[in-house]
Amino acid sequence: MAKKVTPLMQQYNTIKAKYPDALLLFRVGDFYETFGEDAVKSAKILNITLTARNNGGDQTELAGFPHHSLNTYLPKLVMAGCRVAICDQLEDPKQTKKIVKRGVTELVTPGVAINDDILQSKSNNFLAAVHVGKKYYGVAFLDISTGEFLTAEGSLEYIEKLLQNFSPSEVLFNKQKRKWVAETFGDRYHVFHLEDWIYQTDYALETLQKQFDTSGLKGFGVAHLEEGIIAAGAALHYLSETQHNQLEHITRIAPIAEDAYVWMDRFTIRNLELYQPNQPGAITLLDVIDKTISPMGGRMLKRWMALPLKDSEKIAQRHEVVSYLLDHPEVLEKAQQYIKRMGDLERLVSKTATGKINPREVVHLKNSLEAVVPIKALAEQSNNGSLQDIGKRLNDCEVLRDKIKETLNEEAPVAIGKGNAIADGVSAELDELRAIATGGKDYLDAMLQRESERTGITSLKIASNNVFGYYIEVRNTHKDKVPEEWIRKQTLVSAERYITEELKEYEAKILGAEEKILSLEQQLFQELLQHLLQFIGQIQQTATLIAQIDCLASFAHQAKTHRYSRPLLDDSFDLDIKEGRHPVIEQQLPPDSPFIANDVFLDRDNQQIIMITGPNMSGKSAILRQTALIVLLAQMGSFVPASAVRMGCVDKIFTRVGASDNISMGESTFMVEMNETASILNNISERSLVLLDEIGRGTSTYDGISIAWAISEYLHEHPSHAKTLFATHYHELNEMTETFDRIKNYNVSVKEMKDNVLFLRKLVPGGSHHSFGIHVAKMAGMPKAVLLRANKVLKRLEKSHSSEELSDRMKEISQEEMQLSFFKLDDPLLEEIRDEILETDIDTLTPVEALMKLNEIKRMLQRSASVKFKK
């Protein structure tokens, strides 16, 4: 016999069945409750109490929290990767005798969150959708919190790079691709799978055209991206599936033009630590150069870093503005001051469209637009063409600002229900109702005086409570004077409380006025929001332009503070860096340790490949990385950490830096290294910059040297003549300069002292013939015995000239000095010394006795040496 389920749980089960993949927050009275597995999960994430309730004989797990704490707990669930369905009561429990009607009002997932507590101000919250086509892959990125919508298509490598760049909070795939997704991406992203029918060209076109109210997509420049359109349609469909239907702020879709930006594969983005550190707590390039003030500017700077420009004219326009701001520090200072007054225009306007904005935020939007006025004036009055163009396109939305100013109080509350959001004079009816509600004190004072005089009761009091509403209180000493028409409602120890017809009528009038005020304020606020929707496009354009000014002002601030210079871009293939510095490392050094600057020159005709040798820790990797970062900063539109840079635009940056072990995915360090290097060699172009660090170290020495040699030769002989920096500890590669005329040897110089080595970190011509590895081991605190032994072995091995000789010498050393093993004391004398030391009671030993004991051990060793010598 089936167990009986309570009506509440029946209702819960019906709703839960519609959202099996979501954690359901079920509103019961003043609480949001979770049941079963959802309760176990939420109790763990939120650290709240897990209890149980009886459900027709079965014990059901239960965990909940007060409904007013939703904004505290919801972000924690979403940031833990949960999809959260919010189920609210859809009717007033007092108005029904049956079970309250309930339904899901919002589905919040990591990729469609618009809650301020979930979003990070300077980072987009992208939802990504990926479509696996027959030839290409399509991808779309949609940020519901800003209205940005982008699409692209290309190879899997390109799609993976974009996913890494845009760091989506959630990625949508076709259900058919579950296995492929798990194999390709592992657990890198929060993934959700959609039904197969959603990934169809016709459905995607229909969805997009309906959203933009157009008959085609040519006007957006994406019509040719068939796989990208399917991905974009899937992303937009997902918004409606998650109950997000107010999307007036998603007004356009833009292509990510692969040809317009510098190609950096995902290994390069990771190796250079642009915006994600490889180690916890490490400093990224973004951390160092982001001096933006507005959230819009912070998000744009991140995008510029992910997608550096290739068009030298557009790059030069950015450099011109930075140069102008540096030459006019008063303009820079004023612009940054005004930007500081602004809120997040993009997200405020998105909140308007989705109906999530409150009165105080609308006032903030108006004040932010007011700060646009002086920025527009500064830009238009400048004598810089690019800045003037931005100024002309800035829209301060004067009509809208006036409308908000006349409609809302400057001190409007957060919640419209709190009242007093709408300004006086907007509605005659509202003003009249407010007069009734606020004029009550005068009315009650007049009534009190009149009734006191009429009855002769001098101590009359009019008050109100939640039970009776308004009442007249009479002390017992005067109760014989109470008129007959007064109705007694409550008896106290020393007084009686009464109500009158006049009081009842007054109370009804007051309560009616308060309800009408609330209703009318909500109506007027909604009318204002409807009016605001007409300005969405203008505000979004203004936000984009303010973000550009913010980024360029950030570049100017950085250049001024850290002595960056303007790079000169020309049509050549050269890269000529004078006194270049690493932008991240130089800011981490203590003030008394200046960064050692270095020159780097590369071209396609004479010095195509620089072979950099030098000991570990000498700074080879830093020189490689700083070269890439200087090029990257220059093509973002920033000034660079160098005294001078002249360069032709680079179209691809490749790096193979450091070990990126992928053993967890079943690949060895060496296999990963070879995969990444193969990707570089198969994709180089004549404008590529290639940076290779210690290629071949993941295998045996002779294998490694052979591979490194072959790679260098391939790069030299390839028709592209790609500019290359190759850092290596294989000194044998120095010999390549004798055969290959465009390979040049450089080394990071060191100064040898008696027992130590000083790293000078200066790049100088010529090869290095020492590795100083043992010196580095000493600096790391290696035991002295290990260092002495390593030096001995090194001196013997340096005499070897071939691999056979090396092998024989290793066996020789091994057998000859077997008795000197650190852990086996086969020598009787060593055993005697060991026993002598172990038997000594150190705690009772005086300093003089300790010296005598040491002298005794020394004599034992001298005797032993003398005996061996005589033999």
In terms of topology, how is this protein built?
Elements: H1 7-18, E1 23-28, E2 31-35, H2 36-46, E3 51-55, E4 58-66, H3 70-79, E5 84-89, E6 102-108, E7 127-132, E8 137-143, E9 148-154, H4 156-166, E10 170-174, H5 178-185, E11 191-194, H6 201-212, H7 226-241, E12 254-255, E13 263-264, H8 266-271, H9 285-289, H10 295-306, H11 312-327, H12 329-340, H13 345-353, H14 359-370, H15 372-381, H16 385-393, H17 398-407, H18 428-438, H19 440-455, E14 461-465, E15 469-475, E16 487-491, E17 495-499, H20 501-533, H21 536-562, E18 568-570, E19 575-580, H22 585-588, E20 598-602, E21 609-613, H23 620-636, E22 644-648, E23 652-656, H24 669-681, E24 688-693, H25 701-717, E25 723-727, E26 743-752, E27 757-765, H26 773-779, H27 784-797, H28 803-816, H29 828-839, H30 847-870
Parallel strand pairs: 1-5, 7-10, 9-12, 10-11, 13-23, 18-22, 21-25, 21-26, 23-24, 24-25
Antiparallel strand pairs: 1-2, 2-4, 3-4, 5-6, 7-8, 8-9, 14-15, 15-17, 16-17, 19-20, 19-22, 26-27
Helix pairs in contact: 6-7, 10-21, 11-21, 12-15, 12-21, 13-14, 13-21, 14-17, 15-16, 16-21, 17-20, 18-20
Main sheet: strand order: 13-23-24-25-21-26-27
Helix content: 40-55%
Strand content: 15-25%
CATH topology of the largest domain: Rossmann fold
CATH architecture classification of the largest domain? 3-Layer(aba) Sandwich
Helix/strand/pairing category: alpha/beta
**So what's the overall shape?**
globular
Count of separate structural domains: 7
- Give the helix tally: 30
In CATH's first tier, which class of the largest domain applies?
Alpha Beta
Largest beta-sheet details: 7 strands, mixed
